[in-house]
Amino acid sequence: MAILVDKNSKIIVQGITGSEGTFHATQCLEYGGNVVGGVTPGKGGQTALEGKVPVFNSCAEARKAVHANVSLIFVPPPFAADAIMEAAAAGIELIVCITEGIPVAQMVEVKAFVDKTGSRFVGPNCPGVLTPEGAKVGIMPGFIAKKGTVGVISKSGTLTYEAVHQLGSEGLGQSTCIGIGGDPIIGTTMKDLLEMFEHDDETEAIVMIGEIGGSMEIEAAQYAKANVSKPVIGFIAGQTAPPGRRMGHAGAIVSGADESAAAKKKLMAECGIHVVESPADIGRAVKESLNKIEIGVES
Amino acid sequence: MKIHEYQAKELLKGYGIPIQDGVTIEDLAEAEAAIDKVSKELGAEQFVIKAQIHAGGRGKGGGVKFSTSRGKALENLKDILGMTLITHQTGPEGRLVKKVMVAEALDIKQEFYAAITLDRAKGMDTFMVSSEGGMEIEEVAKNSPEKIVKEAIVPGFGLRPFQARNLAQALGLEGQTAKQAIGMFQKLYKLYRELDCSIVEINPLIVTEQGDLVALDAKINFDDNALYLHKDVEAMRDLDEEDPAEVDAAEFNLNYIKLDGNVGCMVNGAGLAMATMDIIKQRGGSPANFLDVGGGANVETVKNGFRIILSDPNVKAVLINIFGGIVRCDRIANGIIEAVKVLDLNVPVVVRLAGTNAEVAKELLANSDVDLISADSFEDAAVKVVEAAKGN
Fold first, then answer.
1. Which among B141, B184, B139, B179 has a CA at the least distance from the CA of B159?
2. Closest CA relative to residue B200, chosen from B220, B226, B180
3. How many Cα atoms within 13 Å fall on the side-chain side of residue A133?
4. How many CB pairs below 8 Å do chains A and B form together?
5. How confident is the model at residue A257 (pLDDT cuts 50, 70, 90)?
6. Which of residues 105-124 of A touch B (CB under 8 A)?
7. Which residue of B lies nearest to A281 if distances are taken between CA atoms?
8. Which residues sit opposite B85 in a β-bridge?
9. Rounded-to-integer distance, Cα A37 and Cα A48, Å
10. Which residues of B does the annotation mark as catalytic?
């Protein structure tokens, strides 16, 4: 099962003729994903990835011609907001935007626009979605993940890889890994994904990696308390970050007391999430949670 | 990006919003002329001398002084220009005051608070006002949240007139003053949206004895992602107000923030960089910096990263933690070897490489003649670097 993407996803890449787009579209194809085409306005009729896939002028064209239902976006920041809206308007079911540096005000409008369509949107400024042995829609290094039962949700890129690496060391694979991005405005939230993982038969435990800034982790924890029966293992990065400083991600800034790592961890623990203090303990904590289920201590 | 009060006020003025006006100088030689100008052109008999730094709490720190005469104004100007101003936002080292605003003093009948910023949870901009002006808004939010009134702005529709009326009413304004407020609030939102601000804050927003609404202070920050759309705004950037090492790093696409510990860190990715700082602290050390070398780490970025980390004399050891995804670890290893050879390193360096080609990378480092401490895991790296910093 897994969530969001699998072998049947029909993937197009917006910005496929750019260098980033070409490189990563090739990687997604090599991973085994069903990349069915690309979109670059003005280059419709050409082919990309050494002739392997057709290029369309618009998402609507790609939707019609190759029945694309997933779009991966590598369009540069000045044009990315428009690209997301175009995909949503064309009825693309899942839109994943990798682009970093989109103005926040544009994202506010994009989110309002996409919410009115039936599309699900992940990102922007994120590593994307990876379902091991299914499909890779993003820039995660495919080889680090393997098929399994742990769902991974994270605001960060390389910290996700670290968590997946630790899971691998414990002999645990993943159902789906999602990097949701660390910008102030993002599409799919931690809560949305907790809900999907809860309903996914293949997922037995969920890793949720957050960071300072915003209140998304708290919203997710409160949701988990009432609605998630599977064990959730959480980590919050940035306990040493000083208030008022933006730590890399545009959203990673402590601007209120309840946006600090300590406050989030406390609330998550109160909601029944297994919060790990050290980022090196994520894999081990998941293993322990799953063992407890096996011996019937927890269910 | 942040700007000074005087620059924020210039922007407000451009949008037709009444401000407490004045003249800003950098040199004491211009002091008398500035006081003259404020007195003649603005008709001021009393003055407020205001230090221009990118930090709040200036008044409490002694950087804002009311002056009852031209003589007093000159005296206060001499005190403030060139002083090291320490506020709760500058840190204990304070900030050198290089610019001072000579402003007109106004008769204040009432003080309010007005601000616009993004409500992340709602995904909408929010216009907030409070009758508790001139105070720290965080304090008001904590102690009497009912005194903050908010209007959420629906994307694409702007601040509607009825919302501006609601805000004016929440402040208890009537008649002409209420009319002025409704106009001002709409102009403020226009400015916020058109210039891609991340915050516009007027604290205090005052009503004068004559019943006029005036922005006595102004703070405007901008969305860095949108600066490419606003070259005129970008031109207002004051590098004197930023940490030189951070400015240096930004030129090489490195995201560096100086902290006060002794373990330097070089990491790829913001989340992993924060987590690396956290684990250093948990193992008894203290991070000297946040440094994200980004996705395209290569020889040049590693070299510059080292140079910037080591420009901080507190650094006693360095931890390099790279998780190679698209970036290949062997390339990073070559970058480290080359950088170490070129730079004269006098602190121990712990290296942890994982992900793509990590094994090849470890061999490269082991077979090189550079002196590095190799770590196998995240945990191992943290323990080793904290130990190394203690021993150095």
1. B184
2. B220
3. 9
4. 168
5. low
6. 105-106, 108-109, 111-112
7. B379
8. B95
9. 8
10. 113, 201
